UniProtKB/TrEMBL annotation:
PANTHER family: PHOSPHOLIPASE-RELATED (PTHR11614)
UniProt protein name: Serine aminopeptidase S33 domain-containing protein
InterPro entries reported in the protein's UniProt record: AB_hydrolase_fold, Hydrolase_4, MAG_DAG_Lipase
Serine aminopeptidase S33 domain segment(s): 2-94
Pfam families: Hydrolase_4
Amino acid sequence: MAQYFAHVGIQFFGFDQRGFGKSGSKAGDLGDNGGVDNVVKDIAAMNRLAMIDGVKHFMFGISMGGMHVLNYCLVHNQDGHIAGIISDAPALENSGLLVPSDEETLFNNQAIVEQWERDDLCLNYSTLGTLVDMYTVGPRITARASDFITPFFAGLPDSLDKKLKIIENCPFHLELADEYTQWILSRVERDS
């Protein structure tokens, strides 16, 4: 997604959440994000580094990252420094299970499932603290939806009750990249 945004002229900064991706591998704490409060602090620090005066700032997150950017803006964007959020398949609801029993529940595209299975950085485990955060923060965000002032675009998987758009055999939501881009650019142009 970052390459797509860069290709259309949108500057994109990203980072691995504590305990996940390459940073978790290096630190030896895979699956432990240190708690939602630390994640919010990390997001705030990244925002301070990435913000450019006079340029609108948007946030993007997938799954647990989608939940975290929504949580950050719900709690820390009363001043409107974030112009909008794209939250792709945000982890807002739980189905009674803390972790899916297999990757088939995550994606409807078999090629993506196979890619996920081969990637050492895609985890099927986490620490209890991280799982508790995932289990409680999403419903807390949903319960406070009426307090949410930041515009957002949510790409929801087809397993949820409410659907914004369903794309069959979507290669990890890349078909939505153009829609995400147009959504960002429309907000930049509209308010300029």
